[in-house]
Give the backbone structure.
Amino acid sequence: MASGIPSAMDRPHFIGIGGAGMSGIAKILAQRGAKVAGSDARESATAESLRALGATVHIGHAAEHLADDATSVVVSSAIRADNPELVRAAELGVPVVHRSDALASLMHTERPIAVAGTHGKTTTTSMLAVALSELGLDPSYAIGGDLAGPGTNARHGEGAIFVAEADESDRSFQKYDPEVAIVLNVELDHHANYASLDEIYESFEAFVDRIRPGGCLVVGEHSGARELAGRVSGREGLTIVRVGEDVGADLRIRQITPKGMTSEVTVVIGAEGDGPGASGEGGTAEELTFTVSVPGRHYAHNAVAALAAGVRLGVAPADLARALTAYTGVGRRLQLKGEARGVQVIDSYAHHPTEMNADLEALRGAAGEDSRILVVFQPHLFSRTQELGTEMGAALALADASVVLDIYPAREDPIPGVTSALIIDAAAAGGADVRPEHTMAAVPDVIAGMARPGDLVLTMGAGDVTDLGPRILARLES
Protein backbone atom coordinates (compact mmCIF):
# COMPACT_ATOMS: atom_id res chain seq x y z
CA MET A 1 0.00 0.00 0.00
CA ALA A 2 1.24 3.50 -0.88
CA SER A 3 1.98 5.73 2.08
CA GLY A 4 -0.78 7.96 3.47
CA ILE A 5 -3.75 6.52 1.57
CA PRO A 6 -6.43 3.90 2.37
CA SER A 7 -5.80 0.40 1.00
CA ALA A 8 -8.87 0.60 -1.27
CA MET A 9 -7.31 3.65 -2.91
CA ASP A 10 -3.93 2.01 -3.53
CA ARG A 11 -4.73 1.10 -7.17
CA PRO A 12 -8.00 2.91 -7.97
CA HIS A 13 -9.71 3.06 -11.35
CA PHE A 14 -11.74 6.23 -12.03
CA ILE A 15 -14.65 6.10 -14.49
CA GLY A 16 -14.88 9.63 -15.88
CA ILE A 17 -11.44 10.57 -14.58
CA GLY A 18 -11.40 13.83 -16.54
CA GLY A 19 -14.28 15.38 -14.60
CA ALA A 20 -13.57 18.32 -12.31
CA GLY A 21 -14.29 16.44 -9.08
CA MET A 22 -12.92 13.07 -10.13
CA SER A 23 -9.65 14.39 -11.56
CA GLY A 24 -8.89 16.28 -8.35
CA ILE A 25 -9.09 13.16 -6.21
CA ALA A 26 -7.08 11.20 -8.78
CA LYS A 27 -4.33 13.86 -8.76
CA ILE A 28 -4.03 13.85 -4.98
CA LEU A 29 -3.87 10.05 -4.88
CA ALA A 30 -1.20 10.01 -7.59
CA GLN A 31 0.83 12.59 -5.66
CA ARG A 32 0.52 10.45 -2.54
CA GLY A 33 1.93 7.44 -4.37
CA ALA A 34 -1.13 5.49 -5.55
CA LYS A 35 -1.15 3.66 -8.87
CA VAL A 36 -4.00 5.60 -10.51
CA ALA A 37 -5.85 4.60 -13.66
CA GLY A 38 -9.09 5.60 -15.30
CA SER A 39 -11.04 6.41 -18.42
CA ASP A 40 -12.77 9.40 -19.93
CA ALA A 41 -14.91 10.10 -22.97
CA ARG A 42 -12.33 12.26 -24.75
CA GLU A 43 -8.81 13.61 -24.68
CA SER A 44 -8.27 16.77 -22.67
CA ALA A 45 -5.66 18.88 -20.94
CA THR A 46 -6.82 17.25 -17.70
CA ALA A 47 -6.03 13.79 -19.09
CA GLU A 48 -2.54 14.98 -20.02
CA SER A 49 -1.93 16.48 -16.58
CA LEU A 50 -2.94 13.18 -14.98
CA ARG A 51 -0.55 11.25 -17.22
CA ALA A 52 2.20 13.67 -16.21
CA LEU A 53 1.61 12.53 -12.62
CA GLY A 54 2.00 8.89 -13.63
CA ALA A 55 -1.67 7.97 -14.05
CA THR A 56 -2.91 5.70 -16.85
CA VAL A 57 -5.77 7.38 -18.72
CA HIS A 58 -7.79 5.51 -21.36
CA ILE A 59 -10.00 7.33 -23.85
CA GLY A 60 -13.43 5.78 -24.22
CA HIS A 61 -15.14 3.31 -21.91
CA ALA A 62 -14.46 -0.42 -22.32
CA ALA A 63 -14.36 -3.41 -19.98
CA GLU A 64 -10.73 -4.15 -20.77
CA HIS A 65 -9.66 -0.77 -19.43
CA LEU A 66 -10.23 -2.02 -15.88
CA ALA A 67 -7.05 -3.72 -14.68
CA ASP A 68 -7.37 -7.07 -12.91
CA ASP A 69 -5.40 -5.78 -9.92
CA ALA A 70 -7.58 -2.67 -9.33
CA THR A 71 -8.39 -2.24 -5.64
CA SER A 72 -11.47 -0.08 -6.27
CA VAL A 73 -13.55 1.59 -8.94
CA VAL A 74 -14.38 5.24 -8.24
CA VAL A 75 -17.57 6.68 -9.72
CA SER A 76 -19.64 9.84 -9.55
CA SER A 77 -23.41 10.10 -9.64
CA ALA A 78 -23.18 10.79 -13.37
CA ILE A 79 -21.96 7.24 -14.20
CA ARG A 80 -24.74 5.00 -15.49
CA ALA A 81 -25.19 1.43 -14.26
CA ASP A 82 -24.56 -0.04 -17.72
CA ASN A 83 -21.10 1.47 -18.08
CA PRO A 84 -18.93 -1.45 -19.29
CA GLU A 85 -16.18 -0.79 -16.76
CA LEU A 86 -18.71 -0.72 -13.93
CA VAL A 87 -20.22 -3.97 -15.19
CA ARG A 88 -16.74 -5.51 -15.32
CA ALA A 89 -16.06 -4.37 -11.75
CA ALA A 90 -19.11 -6.32 -10.59
CA GLU A 91 -17.90 -9.41 -12.43
CA LEU A 92 -14.46 -9.17 -10.80
CA GLY A 93 -15.84 -8.27 -7.38
CA VAL A 94 -13.93 -4.97 -7.28
CA PRO A 95 -15.40 -2.59 -4.67
CA VAL A 96 -17.20 0.45 -6.11
CA VAL A 97 -16.51 3.70 -4.23
CA HIS A 98 -18.44 6.93 -4.72
CA ARG A 99 -16.35 10.01 -5.42
CA SER A 100 -17.44 11.62 -2.14
CA ASP A 101 -16.33 8.59 -0.10
CA ALA A 102 -12.95 8.66 -1.82
CA LEU A 103 -12.52 12.34 -1.01
CA ALA A 104 -13.72 11.86 2.57
CA SER A 105 -11.09 9.17 3.10
CA LEU A 106 -8.36 11.58 2.01
CA MET A 107 -9.62 14.37 4.28
CA HIS A 108 -10.22 12.28 7.37
CA THR A 109 -6.93 12.85 9.21
CA GLU A 110 -6.49 16.49 8.15
CA ARG A 111 -7.96 19.75 9.43
CA PRO A 112 -10.70 19.93 6.81
CA ILE A 113 -12.54 22.97 5.56
CA ALA A 114 -15.62 22.11 3.49
CA VAL A 115 -17.17 24.82 1.32
CA ALA A 116 -20.85 24.35 0.49
CA GLY A 117 -23.70 26.34 -1.01
CA THR A 118 -25.79 26.47 -4.15
CA HIS A 119 -23.41 29.02 -5.70
CA GLY A 120 -19.84 30.19 -5.16
CA LYS A 121 -18.24 27.00 -3.85
CA THR A 122 -15.46 26.79 -6.41
CA THR A 123 -14.42 30.43 -6.10
CA THR A 124 -14.43 30.45 -2.29
CA THR A 125 -12.51 27.18 -2.06
CA SER A 126 -9.99 28.52 -4.55
CA MET A 127 -9.51 31.80 -2.72
CA LEU A 128 -8.84 30.01 0.55
CA ALA A 129 -6.47 27.48 -1.02
CA VAL A 130 -4.44 30.22 -2.69
CA ALA A 131 -4.27 32.39 0.44
CA LEU A 132 -3.19 29.53 2.71
CA SER A 133 -0.58 28.47 0.15
CA GLU A 134 0.70 32.05 -0.07
CA LEU A 135 1.22 32.01 3.69
CA GLY A 136 3.35 28.87 3.47
CA LEU A 137 0.81 26.57 5.15
CA ASP A 138 0.98 24.15 2.18
CA PRO A 139 -2.66 22.95 2.27
CA SER A 140 -4.11 20.10 0.29
CA TYR A 141 -7.08 21.12 -1.82
CA ALA A 142 -9.70 19.70 -4.16
CA ILE A 143 -11.60 22.24 -6.26
CA GLY A 144 -14.14 22.15 -9.10
CA GLY A 145 -12.00 24.32 -11.39
CA ASP A 146 -8.38 24.99 -12.28
CA LEU A 147 -6.63 27.78 -10.38
CA ALA A 148 -5.21 30.47 -12.66
CA GLY A 149 -1.76 30.39 -11.02
CA PRO A 150 -0.97 26.69 -10.42
CA GLY A 151 -3.19 25.65 -13.35
CA THR A 152 -4.64 22.71 -11.44
CA ASN A 153 -7.77 21.87 -9.45
CA ALA A 154 -6.10 19.74 -6.76
CA ARG A 155 -2.88 19.24 -4.88
CA HIS A 156 -1.49 17.17 -2.07
CA GLY A 157 0.19 19.47 0.43
CA GLU A 158 2.32 18.62 3.44
CA GLY A 159 0.38 20.94 5.74
CA ALA A 160 -2.43 19.94 8.09
CA ILE A 161 -5.25 21.82 6.32
CA PHE A 162 -7.38 20.29 3.57
CA VAL A 163 -9.73 22.64 1.69
CA ALA A 164 -12.47 20.95 -0.33
CA GLU A 165 -15.51 21.91 -2.32
CA ALA A 166 -18.54 20.12 -0.83
CA ASP A 167 -21.20 19.16 -3.37
CA GLU A 168 -24.82 19.21 -2.24
CA SER A 169 -26.31 18.11 -5.59
CA ASP A 170 -26.49 14.41 -4.65
CA ARG A 171 -26.17 14.82 -0.86
CA SER A 172 -22.56 13.64 -1.05
CA PHE A 173 -21.39 16.53 1.16
CA GLN A 174 -22.90 14.63 4.08
CA LYS A 175 -19.87 12.32 3.94
CA TYR A 176 -17.38 14.92 5.21
CA ASP A 177 -16.57 15.84 8.82
CA PRO A 178 -15.06 19.33 8.60
CA GLU A 179 -13.54 21.36 11.39
CA VAL A 180 -14.86 24.45 9.62
CA ALA A 181 -17.75 24.47 7.17
CA ILE A 182 -18.83 27.35 4.95
CA VAL A 183 -22.39 27.64 3.65
CA LEU A 184 -22.62 30.56 1.25
CA ASN A 185 -26.27 30.25 0.22
CA VAL A 186 -29.14 27.77 0.08
CA GLU A 187 -31.58 27.68 -2.84
CA LEU A 188 -33.75 25.10 -4.58
CA ASP A 189 -31.73 23.43 -7.33
CA HIS A 190 -30.87 19.90 -8.49
CA HIS A 191 -34.53 19.16 -9.09
CA ALA A 192 -33.88 15.53 -10.03
CA ASN A 193 -32.64 14.88 -6.47
CA TYR A 194 -34.65 17.32 -4.33
CA ALA A 195 -38.43 17.66 -4.43
CA SER A 196 -38.66 20.80 -2.31
CA LEU A 197 -36.71 23.53 -0.55
CA ASP A 198 -37.44 21.79 2.75
CA GLU A 199 -35.54 18.76 1.48
CA ILE A 200 -32.63 21.04 0.63
CA TYR A 201 -32.61 22.48 4.15
CA GLU A 202 -32.75 19.00 5.67
CA SER A 203 -29.77 17.99 3.58
CA PHE A 204 -27.77 21.05 4.64
CA GLU A 205 -28.69 20.42 8.29
CA ALA A 206 -27.31 16.89 7.95
CA PHE A 207 -24.11 18.43 6.54
CA VAL A 208 -23.86 20.79 9.53
CA ASP A 209 -24.36 17.84 11.90
CA ARG A 210 -21.10 16.40 10.52
CA ILE A 211 -19.00 19.37 11.72
CA ARG A 212 -16.51 18.18 14.33
CA PRO A 213 -17.18 18.97 18.01
CA GLY A 214 -15.95 22.46 18.78
CA GLY A 215 -16.03 23.32 15.09
CA CYS A 216 -17.43 26.30 13.26
CA LEU A 217 -20.08 27.08 10.65
CA VAL A 218 -19.51 30.19 8.53
CA VAL A 219 -22.71 31.42 6.86
CA GLY A 220 -23.13 34.00 4.14
CA GLU A 221 -25.65 36.81 3.94
CA HIS A 222 -28.04 34.99 1.60
CA SER A 223 -31.49 34.50 3.15
CA GLY A 224 -31.25 30.73 2.74
CA ALA A 225 -27.92 30.61 4.59
CA ARG A 226 -29.35 32.75 7.37
CA GLU A 227 -32.39 30.46 7.58
CA LEU A 228 -30.06 27.48 7.92
CA ALA A 229 -28.13 29.26 10.69
CA GLY A 230 -31.38 29.79 12.56
CA ARG A 231 -32.30 26.12 12.22
CA VAL A 232 -28.99 24.87 13.64
CA SER A 233 -28.43 27.61 16.20
CA GLY A 234 -27.93 26.28 19.70
CA ARG A 235 -26.42 22.96 18.70
CA GLU A 236 -23.89 21.92 21.30
CA GLY A 237 -20.26 22.62 20.47
CA LEU A 238 -21.03 24.58 17.29
CA THR A 239 -19.91 28.19 16.75
CA ILE A 240 -21.73 30.11 14.02
CA VAL A 241 -19.98 33.05 12.32
CA ARG A 242 -22.08 35.29 10.08
CA VAL A 243 -20.49 37.30 7.28
CA GLY A 244 -22.11 39.97 5.15
CA GLU A 245 -23.02 43.61 4.83
CA ASP A 246 -25.69 43.67 7.55
CA VAL A 247 -24.82 45.36 10.85
CA GLY A 248 -25.24 42.16 12.88
CA ALA A 249 -22.59 40.22 10.95
CA ASP A 250 -19.56 38.94 12.86
CA LEU A 251 -17.43 39.82 9.84
CA ARG A 252 -19.12 42.88 8.43
CA ILE A 253 -18.42 44.01 4.88
CA ARG A 254 -18.31 47.77 5.31
CA GLN A 255 -17.62 48.69 1.68
CA ILE A 256 -17.11 47.15 -1.75
CA THR A 257 -15.53 49.49 -4.30
CA PRO A 258 -15.56 48.34 -7.96
CA LYS A 259 -12.28 48.99 -9.77
CA GLY A 260 -12.67 47.71 -13.32
CA MET A 261 -12.28 43.94 -13.29
CA THR A 262 -11.35 43.96 -9.57
CA SER A 263 -12.92 45.13 -6.31
CA GLU A 264 -11.57 46.68 -3.13
CA VAL A 265 -13.20 45.28 0.00
CA THR A 266 -13.21 46.74 3.50
CA VAL A 267 -14.25 44.34 6.26
CA VAL A 268 -14.67 44.78 9.99
CA ILE A 269 -13.84 41.75 12.13
CA GLY A 270 -15.75 41.66 15.38
CA ALA A 271 -18.54 43.63 13.70
CA GLU A 272 -18.22 46.49 16.19
CA GLY A 273 -20.50 44.56 18.51
CA ASP A 274 -20.54 41.90 21.15
CA GLY A 275 -20.98 38.83 18.93
CA PRO A 276 -18.51 35.97 18.87
CA GLY A 277 -16.52 37.42 15.98
CA ALA A 278 -14.45 35.36 13.58
CA SER A 279 -11.60 35.04 16.03
CA GLY A 280 -13.87 34.04 18.87
CA GLU A 281 -12.43 36.85 20.97
CA GLY A 282 -15.26 39.39 20.74
CA GLY A 283 -14.51 42.92 21.87
CA THR A 284 -12.32 45.22 19.76
CA ALA A 285 -13.21 45.49 16.10
CA GLU A 286 -10.44 45.26 13.48
CA GLU A 287 -10.79 46.87 10.05
CA LEU A 288 -8.99 45.47 7.00
CA THR A 289 -8.99 46.45 3.32
CA PHE A 290 -7.85 44.15 0.53
CA THR A 291 -8.30 43.59 -3.22
CA VAL A 292 -10.35 40.86 -4.88
CA SER A 293 -9.14 40.13 -8.39
CA VAL A 294 -12.61 39.52 -9.90
CA PRO A 295 -15.50 42.00 -10.16
CA GLY A 296 -18.88 41.74 -8.48
CA ARG A 297 -20.35 41.86 -4.99
CA HIS A 298 -20.82 38.10 -4.86
CA TYR A 299 -17.09 37.49 -5.32
CA ALA A 300 -16.33 40.00 -2.56
CA HIS A 301 -18.68 38.07 -0.27
CA ASN A 302 -16.92 34.82 -1.22
CA ALA A 303 -13.56 36.32 -0.26
CA VAL A 304 -14.82 37.42 3.15
CA ALA A 305 -16.26 33.94 3.80
CA ALA A 306 -12.83 32.50 2.99
CA LEU A 307 -11.27 35.02 5.36
CA ALA A 308 -13.62 33.99 8.16
CA ALA A 309 -12.84 30.28 7.72
CA GLY A 310 -9.08 30.81 7.71
CA VAL A 311 -9.22 32.98 10.82
CA ARG A 312 -11.18 30.24 12.64
CA LEU A 313 -8.23 27.95 11.97
CA GLY A 314 -5.94 30.40 13.72
CA VAL A 315 -4.52 32.42 10.83
CA ALA A 316 -3.98 36.10 11.64
CA PRO A 317 -6.69 38.19 9.91
CA ALA A 318 -4.31 40.82 8.49
CA ASP A 319 -2.00 38.14 7.09
CA LEU A 320 -4.88 36.28 5.49
CA ALA A 321 -6.37 39.44 3.99
CA ARG A 322 -3.03 40.27 2.35
CA ALA A 323 -2.68 36.69 1.10
CA LEU A 324 -6.14 36.77 -0.50
CA THR A 325 -4.84 39.35 -2.97
CA ALA A 326 -2.70 36.56 -4.47
CA TYR A 327 -5.86 34.94 -5.85
CA THR A 328 -5.98 35.65 -9.59
CA GLY A 329 -8.98 33.63 -10.63
CA VAL A 330 -10.19 30.14 -11.38
CA GLY A 331 -11.25 28.51 -14.61
CA ARG A 332 -14.76 29.33 -15.84
CA ARG A 333 -15.52 31.94 -13.14
CA LEU A 334 -15.56 35.15 -15.20
CA GLN A 335 -12.33 33.92 -16.77
CA LEU A 336 -10.90 36.14 -19.48
CA LYS A 337 -10.16 33.85 -22.43
CA GLY A 338 -8.61 36.57 -24.56
CA GLU A 339 -9.19 39.67 -26.66
CA ALA A 340 -9.43 40.07 -30.43
CA ARG A 341 -10.09 43.26 -32.40
CA GLY A 342 -11.10 45.09 -29.24
CA VAL A 343 -13.59 42.42 -28.12
CA GLN A 344 -12.99 40.59 -24.83
CA VAL A 345 -14.23 36.99 -24.53
CA ILE A 346 -15.02 35.84 -20.99
CA ASP A 347 -16.15 32.43 -19.76
CA SER A 348 -18.68 31.78 -16.99
CA TYR A 349 -19.87 28.55 -15.38
CA ALA A 350 -23.16 30.21 -14.33
CA HIS A 351 -26.14 27.96 -15.04
CA HIS A 352 -28.63 28.87 -12.30
CA PRO A 353 -30.60 32.16 -12.55
CA THR A 354 -29.01 33.54 -9.38
CA GLU A 355 -25.52 32.90 -10.77
CA MET A 356 -26.47 34.31 -14.18
CA ASN A 357 -27.80 37.52 -12.61
CA ALA A 358 -24.72 37.90 -10.39
CA ASP A 359 -22.19 37.46 -13.20
CA LEU A 360 -24.06 39.71 -15.62
CA GLU A 361 -24.41 42.44 -12.98
CA ALA A 362 -20.68 42.12 -12.21
CA LEU A 363 -19.76 42.52 -15.87
CA ARG A 364 -22.16 45.42 -16.27
CA GLY A 365 -20.38 47.17 -13.42
CA ALA A 366 -16.95 46.47 -14.93
CA ALA A 367 -17.78 47.32 -18.55
CA GLY A 368 -17.21 50.71 -20.11
CA GLU A 369 -20.08 53.07 -20.79
CA ASP A 370 -20.19 52.22 -24.50
CA SER A 371 -19.53 48.49 -24.07
CA ARG A 372 -22.19 45.93 -24.83
CA ILE A 373 -22.50 42.50 -23.22
CA LEU A 374 -23.21 39.68 -25.67
CA VAL A 375 -24.04 36.29 -24.14
CA VAL A 376 -23.83 32.78 -25.55
CA PHE A 377 -25.88 30.73 -23.09
CA GLN A 378 -26.14 26.96 -22.94
CA PRO A 379 -28.83 25.67 -20.53
CA HIS A 380 -27.69 22.78 -18.33
CA LEU A 381 -30.03 19.84 -17.60
CA PHE A 382 -33.63 19.34 -18.72
CA SER A 383 -34.92 19.23 -15.14
CA ARG A 384 -33.32 22.58 -14.27
CA THR A 385 -34.66 24.19 -17.45
CA GLN A 386 -38.13 22.85 -16.74
CA GLU A 387 -38.17 24.39 -13.27
CA LEU A 388 -36.17 27.58 -13.83
CA GLY A 389 -36.37 28.35 -17.55
CA THR A 390 -38.50 31.46 -17.00
CA GLU A 391 -36.01 32.86 -14.49
CA MET A 392 -33.11 32.09 -16.84
CA GLY A 393 -34.85 34.06 -19.57
CA ALA A 394 -35.36 36.98 -17.19
CA ALA A 395 -31.65 36.94 -16.31
CA LEU A 396 -30.68 37.24 -19.97
CA ALA A 397 -32.51 40.57 -20.08
CA LEU A 398 -29.42 42.00 -18.34
CA ALA A 399 -27.41 41.37 -21.52
CA ASP A 400 -27.57 43.55 -24.62
CA ALA A 401 -28.07 40.49 -26.83
CA SER A 402 -28.03 36.73 -26.30
CA VAL A 403 -27.66 33.54 -28.30
CA VAL A 404 -29.26 30.51 -26.63
CA LEU A 405 -28.04 27.00 -27.49
CA ASP A 406 -29.82 23.68 -27.08
CA ILE A 407 -29.92 22.13 -23.59
CA TYR A 408 -26.78 20.32 -22.49
CA PRO A 409 -28.19 17.03 -21.13
CA ALA A 410 -25.23 15.85 -19.02
CA ARG A 411 -26.56 12.82 -17.13
CA GLU A 412 -30.25 13.30 -17.98
CA ASP A 413 -32.60 11.97 -20.63
CA PRO A 414 -34.82 14.48 -22.48
CA ILE A 415 -38.12 15.57 -20.92
CA PRO A 416 -40.95 15.92 -23.47
CA GLY A 417 -41.71 19.55 -24.20
CA VAL A 418 -38.66 20.91 -22.37
CA THR A 419 -36.36 22.80 -24.75
CA SER A 420 -34.40 26.05 -24.86
CA ALA A 421 -37.57 27.68 -26.22
CA LEU A 422 -38.77 28.01 -22.60
CA ILE A 423 -35.86 30.36 -21.92
CA ILE A 424 -36.01 32.18 -25.25
CA ASP A 425 -39.74 32.87 -24.95
CA ALA A 426 -39.34 34.17 -21.40
CA ALA A 427 -36.46 36.42 -22.41
CA ALA A 428 -38.31 37.77 -25.45
CA ALA A 429 -41.40 38.44 -23.32
CA GLY A 430 -39.24 40.67 -21.15
CA GLY A 431 -38.02 42.63 -24.14
CA ALA A 432 -34.60 40.96 -24.42
CA ASP A 433 -32.77 40.65 -27.73
CA VAL A 434 -32.40 36.86 -27.86
CA ARG A 435 -32.10 34.32 -30.66
CA PRO A 436 -31.78 30.52 -30.82
CA GLU A 437 -28.85 28.67 -32.31
CA HIS A 438 -28.96 24.89 -32.62
CA THR A 439 -25.48 24.37 -34.09
CA MET A 440 -22.41 25.05 -31.95
CA ALA A 441 -20.23 25.39 -35.05
CA ALA A 442 -22.27 28.36 -36.25
CA VAL A 443 -21.81 30.44 -33.07
CA PRO A 444 -18.40 32.01 -33.87
CA ASP A 445 -19.76 33.42 -37.13
CA VAL A 446 -22.91 34.67 -35.41
CA ILE A 447 -20.93 36.46 -32.68
CA ALA A 448 -18.41 37.87 -35.17
CA GLY A 449 -21.32 39.41 -37.02
CA MET A 450 -22.68 41.00 -33.83
CA ALA A 451 -19.58 42.15 -31.94
CA ARG A 452 -17.86 45.49 -32.26
CA PRO A 453 -14.78 46.94 -30.50
CA GLY A 454 -15.36 47.48 -26.79
CA ASP A 455 -17.92 44.68 -26.44
CA LEU A 456 -17.71 41.85 -23.91
CA VAL A 457 -18.69 38.37 -25.09
CA LEU A 458 -19.69 35.97 -22.31
CA THR A 459 -19.92 32.23 -22.90
CA MET A 460 -22.14 30.98 -20.09
CA GLY A 461 -23.20 27.54 -18.85
CA ALA A 462 -21.95 24.36 -17.19
CA GLY A 463 -21.60 22.29 -20.38
CA ASP A 464 -19.27 22.38 -23.37
CA VAL A 465 -20.14 26.00 -24.21
CA THR A 466 -16.73 26.76 -22.67
CA ASP A 467 -15.12 25.30 -25.81
CA LEU A 468 -16.51 28.18 -27.87
CA GLY A 469 -14.28 30.90 -26.36
CA PRO A 470 -11.12 30.10 -28.37
CA ARG A 471 -13.20 29.55 -31.53
CA ILE A 472 -14.90 32.92 -31.17
CA LEU A 473 -11.52 34.61 -30.67
CA ALA A 474 -10.09 32.90 -33.73
CA ARG A 475 -13.08 33.96 -35.83
CA LEU A 476 -12.83 37.56 -34.63
CA GLU A 477 -9.14 37.58 -35.56
CA SER A 478 -9.88 36.28 -39.05
